[in-house]
Specification:
The structure holds two protein chains of two kinds. Chain A is α/β, with parallel strands linked by helices. Chain A has a single domain, classed as NADH:ubiquinone oxidoreductase Nqo5 subunit (Beta Polymerase, domain 2). The longest helix of chain A is centred in the N-terminal third of the chain and has 12 residues. Chain B folds into two domains: 67 residues, no CATH class; 296 residues, Cytochrome-c3 Hydrogenase, chain B, CATH 1.10.645. Chain B is built from 17 helices and ten strands. In chain B, the strands form three sheets. A five-stranded antiparallel sheet of chain B has the order 3-2-1-9-10. A three-stranded antiparallel sheet of chain B has the order 6-7-8. Classes of the chains: A alpha/beta, B alpha+beta. At the A-B interface, strand 1, strand 2, strand 3, strand 4 and helix 3 of A face helix 8, helix 10, strand 7 and strand 8 of B.
C-alpha cells in the first residue's frame, strides 16, 4: 500500500494543483490542547461531485487513508455527504483529519461507491443509502443495514423534507409499506 | 441407495440477533462445512434507538446525557467526543486542568472496560474463576470511579468546555492506593493470561486478522493495533492533555516481538493497555496544573453562546474499543442541525468476516468476543439443516466452547 506522508499544506497544494476548480472552500484549521499547546491539523474541503471518485483514487494512491465514517446533512435542495478521513497515523501527533464534503442534488442523489478502493466503506455507504436515500452506484451489497427489512419505502430518517420521518410517526396510515 | 442430487456440503447457522458474545444484539449467518466456517454474514440494527433523531429537539447540554446512554461501558467516551465536536465547532478552549481531569476519567474507563472484557473472554473459553477474579479487580476500579465522579457507570462528569467535578488534594491518596492495588493485580492477571498453556492453545492462531485486512477494512482500536497497525488517537493527535504526556502506541510486538493478529495478540494488547492507562493516570496526577475545571460554569450563558454558533466540528476520542467520532453541525438553533455518532464497533464489524472464516463453531464465542464488540448478553443458535430446525441454546454453544478447552487440556 502506498505510503507517502505529506504535511497539511503540501496535501492541500497537491489537491489544488490536481483538481483546480473542482475543489472549493479549502480550510486548514489547527487546534491546540494541553499545557504545551501541541496542535493537530484538520482540513475541510468541498469537492465537486464529478471529481469525487478521482479524488479518492488520488488519495489512496498517495497514502491509504483510514475512513472513519461518512456523515450526511439534508441541506434543502442538496444532500451533503462528508467523508471523514485520517492520514499520517502512527507517528506522534502527526495525524491529519481530512473531511471531504460532496453535495448531491436532491433531484438525482447519486454517487459512486468507494468500496473498490476502501472495502471498509461498505457499512457507512449502506447506512447513507437507507438513512438519506442516496443511491450509491456500484455498491457490492445494497441491503439495508440498520433499518428493519420491512421499513416503509421511500422514507429516509435523516431527511428533513416530505421523505423524512414526520409522516411515519404522525400519520402512519399515509406511509406506503 | 442413490444419493439425492440436492445434497449440499455446507449448511447455514443463524446466530443471534441475541447472540453468544454480545450484550448488543447482532445477527450472524454462518455457512458451515462440517466444523469449519466457510462464510459469514452480519446483520445489524436490532437495537437502533434513533438517538440522533432524538437529538433534533434537544439542546447540546441535554444531548450530553443522551450520548452518555448510547453505551453503558463507554458512558464517558461518547459524551466527551460530543463535547469535543461542539468545542471544535464553537471554538471553545477548555482550561488546562480540565484537560488532565478528562484524561484521568478516560483512562479509568479504559481500565474498567478492558478488565470487563478480560473476564468475558475467560468465561467464553471456560475459565470462570478468572472471570470472578478480573471482575473483582474491576469492582475496585468502579469504586474509584464512584469516589471520583459520584457514580459507577453513568458518570455525568462531562460538560461542554470542561468537566463537572474536580479532584482535590485529599482525594489523591485514595487514587494512589487503588492504583497500587491495580498494579499488584496486573502482575497476577498477566501471569494467568499470558503463561497459561490452555489459554494459549485456545487463542493462538485463532481468529487471525492480517495487517492488510485491518487497514483495508478500517478497523479501529485494540483490534487494529493487535494486528500491528499503529493507530491510536491519543498518540496520533493532540487532544485533552495527551499531547503533554509520555505515551507510545502499543502493539503486541512490544511484549512478544512479533505480531500475529490472533486472539492471543488481542489479549496481550488489552493487558498492555491496562498498564499504560495506570501509568497515564499517574502522570496526570503528577503533572496536573491548578486552575478552573470548566470554561463557562453558567449553563444558561453557555447555551446562549452555543446558539450564536454557525459551524461544524468533529470530535475524536480513543474509547476503550477504539476511535469514536462525533460530527456536529450547529446552525444557530437550540438543537444542533446534525449529530452523527460513530462508535468503534461500527468499524470493527467487517473485520469479523476474515477473522471468523476458517474457524470452528466452538471458536465463534471467543473470536467474536475478541474485538470486544460492546460486549455480551447471549442467547440461542438455531441450526437449519435439510429443512429441519435444531436449536442450540446459548448454554449449549458455551458448553461446546468449554468442551473444546477441556479437550485441549487433556
Amino acid at each position: 500500500m502506498a505510503e507517502k506522508r505529506l504535511n497539511p499544506e503540501e496535501l492541500v497544494k497537491y489537491f489544488k494543483d490536481e483538481f483546480k476548480t473542482n475543489i472549493k472552500n479549502i480550510q486548514i484549521k489547527r487546534r491546540a490542547a494541553g499545557k504545551k499547546k501541541n496542535e493537530t491539523a484538520t482540513i475541510w474541503m468541498k469537492i465537486d461531485k464529478s471529481a469525487f471518485k478521482k479524488v479518492i483514487e488520488h488519495l489512496c494512491k498517495l497514502q491509504f487513508p483510514h475512513l472513519g465514517v461518512a456523515s450526511g446533512n439534508d441541506l434543502g435542495n442538496t444532500i451533503e455527504l462528508i467523508y471523514h478521513f485520517t492520514l499520517n497515523s502512527g507517528k506522534r501527533m502527526e495525524e491529519i483529519n481530512l473531511h471531504i464534503s460532496v453535495e448531491l442534488p436532491k433531484s438525482k442523489p447519486e454517487i459512486e461507491t468507494i468500496c473498490d478502493w476502501i472495502p471498509g466503506a461498505l457499512i457507512t455507504e449502506r447506512e447513507k443509502m437507507e438513512m438519506l436515500g442516496v443511491k450509491i452506484i456500484g455498491i457490492p451489497d445494497d441491503r439495508k443495514c440498520f433499518l428493519p427489512d420491512d421499513f416503509p419505502e421511500d422514507v429516509y430518517p435523516w431527511r428533513r423534507d416530505e421523505k423524512g420521518l414526520e409522516k411515519l410517526y404522525k400519520n402512519l396510515h399515509e406511509v406506503k409499506k | 441407495m442413490k444419493q439425492k442430487t440436492t445434497t449440499k456440503t455446507s449448511y447455514h447457522i443463524p446466530i443471534g440477533p441475541i447472540h453468544p458474545a454480545l450484550k448488543e444484539p447482532v445477527f450472524f449467518e454462518f455457512e458451515i462445512d462440517g466444523e469449519r466456517i466457510v462464510d459469514v454474514d452480519v446483520k445489524l440494527g436490532h437495537v437502533h434507538r434513533a438517538v440522533e433523531w432524538a437529538s433534533r429537539k434537544r439542546n447540546p447540554i441535554q444531548i450530553l446525557y443522551i450520548a452518555e446512554r448510547i453505551c453503558g461501558i463507554c458512558s464517558y467516551s461518547h459524551p466527551v467526543a460530543f463535547a469535543l465536536a461542539v468545542e471544535d465547532a464553537a471554538d471553545i478552549m477548555i482550561p488546562e486542568r480540565a484537560e488532565y481531569l478528562r484524561v484521568i476519567q478516560g483512562e479509568l474507563e479504559r481500565i474498567c472496560s478492558h478488565l470487563l472484557w478480560a473476564g468475558v473472554a475467560a468465561h467464553e473459553i471456560g475459565f470462570d474463576t478468572v472471570l470472578f477474579f478480573t471482575w473483582q479487580v474491576r469492582e475496585r476500579t468502579l469504586d474509584l470511579t464512584e469516589f471520583l465522579t459520584g457514580n459507577r457507570i453513568t458518570k455525568a462528569i462531562t460538560m461542554i468546555g470542561g468537566v463537572r467535578r474536580d479532584i482535590t488534594k485529599d482525594m489523591l491518596p485514595r487514587i494512589q492506593k487503588d492504583l497500587d492495588y491495580l498494579k499488584e493485580c496486573y502482575g497476577k492477571l498477566g501471569k494467568i493470561f499470558l503463561e497459561d498453556k490452555t489459554i494459549k492453545l485456545r487463542s493462538q492462531g485463532a481468529g487471525i486478522l492480517t495487517k492488510e485486512d485491518a487497514l483495508k477494512l478500517c478497523a479501529v482500536g485494540p483490534t487494529t493495533r493487535a494486528s500491528g497497525v499503529k493507530k491510536d488517537v491519543r498518540v496520533d493527535t493532540s487532544y485533552f492533555a495527551y499531547g503533554d504526556l509520555d505515551i507510545d502506541c502499543i502493539t503486541p510486538a512490544d511484549l512478544t516481538g512479533t505480531v500475529n493478529g490472533d486472539v492471543y495478540d488481542r489479549i496481550i494488547q488489552r493487558l498492555l493497555e491496562v498498564k499504560q492507562s495506570i501509568d497515564l493516570i499517574e502522570q496526570c496526577v503528577d503533572k496536573m496544573p491548578a486552575g478552573d475545571i470548566v470554561a463557562e460554569p453558567k449553563i444558561a450563558k453557555l447555551l446562549a453562546q452555543l446558539k450564536k454558533v454557525n459551524g461544524e466540528g468533529v470530535g475524536r476520542h480513543e474509547a476503550p474499543r477504539g476511535e469514536v467520532i462525533h460530527y456536529v453541525k450547529l446552525d444557530g438553533n437550540d438543537a444542533p442541525f446534525t449529530w452523527k455518532v460513530r462508535a468503534p464497533t461500527y468499524n470493527n464489524i467487517l473485520p469479523w468476516i476474515p477473522m471468523l472464516k476458517g474457524e470452528q463453531i466452538a471458536d465463534i464465542p471467543i473470536v467474536a468476543a475478541s474485538t470486544d464488540p460492546c460486549i455480551s448478553c447471549t442467547n440461542r443458535v438455531g441450526i437449519v439443516k435439510d429443512g429441519n430446525k435444531y436449536e442450540l441454546t446459548k448454554e449449549q454453544l458455551h458448553k461446546m466452547s468449554v468442551e473444546k478447552t477441556r479437550r485441549l487440556m487433556r
